[in-house]
Amino acid sequence: MSLPVVAIVGRPNVGKSTLFNRIIKKREAIVDDLPGVTRDRHYAETEWSGQSFVVVDTGGYLPQTSDTIEMAIREQVEIAIQEADVILYVVDRASGITNWDAQIADKLKRSQKAVMLVVNKVDNEMMESDIYQFYGLGLGDPIAVSALQGRTIGDMLDILISQIRNVPMPEVIADEDAIKLAVVGRENVGKSSFVNMLIGQTRSIVTDIPGTTRDPIDSELNYQKRKYLLIDTAGLKRKAKVKENILFFSQLRSVRSIQRADVVLYFLDATAGPTRQDLRVINEATQHRKGIVIAVNKWDLVPKDDKTLFEWEKALRERLGSYSYIPIVFTSVLEKIRLFKLVVAFFCNFPELLGESSNRFL
Ligand code: GDP
Ligand code: GDP
To answer: For ligand 2, what atom is nearest to the CA of residue 297?
Structure first.
C-alpha cells in the first residue's frame, strides 16, 4: 500500500516544526528500534480518521547565512511541488502577509498541486478575525490553527484528510502485475549510473510511463519474462541546487518511492559508510514490509585486503540490528563488479519470497 506524502512548507519561524510535532504527536506509527534514529527527524508516518499518511517538515533544512535562505526556501517549495501529494502551506497570523509569503503563494498557485493554507499562531478566538487578510494570497480558505496550543488541529486534519482522498494516487497509471522497484539512497552514491546501466543492459522494452503533473515518471521493463516498473526514474535526474536542500530532496524522494515500491534497492557509498539518515530510511522501508537489498557501491575506491569485505559487512550488519538479515551486495557500477548479483537480488527479492530465504544471495 502506498501512503500519500504531505509536505509542510513556509518561510522561517511561522511554526512549521511546531505544527509537524503537533501532527505526529503520539500517533507515530513507526517505532524505531535503532539508536539515534528518532532524533532530528523531519518526516514521520501518522494517521488521522483511519487515513495514514507521511508528513515531511521542511523546517529543519535551512542554510546558516541569511542571504541564501530565500533561495533555499524557494527551492524547497519546488521540491515539495514535485514530490508531495498535498502541501501544507503555513503562514503566521502575527506577521500578516509578507512579500515572501506572496511569492511562495504564487509558486504554489501555479503548480496546481493540492495546497492547504494554514494560518498558524491563532492562539485564541479573538485572533480568528485576523485570518481574513490571508484570502489575499489567492489560495482559498485559510485554516486557522495554533500549533503551539494544539488549537483546532483536529479540524485542520479533517480538511487535510479530505484533500488527501481527492488526490489520485500514482499507482492507478501503473500496470497492476508489474513488480515495483525503487532505487533510493543519498546524492552521488551511483543510483542513476545503475539505473542507466540496467535500462541499457536489459535491452528489452523500456517504456517511459508518463506521469501527470504531480506524478513521477516510471520506466517499465521486462526481465526474464516478468514485468517490472522502475519507480521514479525521472526523479533520479532531478537534483537540489542549494546544499541544505540536497538532504531534503533525497529524503522526500526516498519516502515517496518507498511508499510506492514492492522492493527497494538502497545504495550506500562504500567510501562514506552508512549515515543515520541511511539507517532511518532502511528502517522505514523494512517497517513497511518492503523487500530490501543494500548495495554498497563504489567498492572499487576502497583500499582492501582479503578481510575488508567481511569486516565492512559485519560492521554494517551490526548497525542494522534486527534487520541484519537484509541482503548486502558490494558493487562497483563503474567497474561492473557484482552487478549481475545485484540485479538478481533486486529483481527476485520481492516480498512473496522474503520470508523463506531472504539470505540466499549473500
Ligand atoms: P519554523 O521555523 O517554521 O519551523 O517555526 P518553529 O516551529 O520553529 O516556530 C517558530 C517560533 O514560533 C517558535 O518560537 C514557536 O514556539 C513559535 N510558535 C509556533 N507555533 C506557534 C503558535 O501556534 N502560537 C504561537 N504564539 N507561537 C508559535
Ligand atoms: P546518484 O546521485 O546517486 O544518481 O549518483 P550518480 O549515478 O550520478 O553517480 C555519482 C558519481 O559517482 C558519478 O560521477 C559516477 O560516475 C560515480 N560513480 C557511480 N558509481 C560508481 C562506482 O561504482 N565507483 C566509482 N568510483 N564511481 C562511481
So the answer is: 23
253 lines ligand 2 (CB under 6 A): no
| pLDDT(208) > 70 | no
For residue 88, the CA-to-ligand 1 centroid distance in Å is: 15
Q: What is the pLDDT of residues 255-311, one digit of tens each?
A: 888 888 989 999 999 999 898 889 988 988 898 888 999 999 999 999 999 999 999
SS3 assignment, position 109: helix
DSSP state of 97: -
Return the amino acid letter for 207. T
Residue 11's alpha-carbon distances to 141, 145, 160, 251, in angstroms, are 19, 17, 20, 20
Directed axis angle between helix 153-166 and helix 16-24, to 10°?
A: 80
What pLDDT score was predicted for residue 199?
80
Cell of residue 153, nine digits: 488541529
Does the CB atom of residue 15 touch ligand 1 within 6 A?
Answer: yes
Asked if residues 324 and 315 have their Cβ atoms less than 8 Å apart, the reply is no
Alpha-carbon distance of 120 to 108, in angstroms, equals 18
What is the pTM (predicted TM-score) of this model?
Answer: 0.75
Question: Average pLDDT, stretch 237-250?
Answer: 80
d(CA 110, CA 106) in angstroms, rounded, equals 6
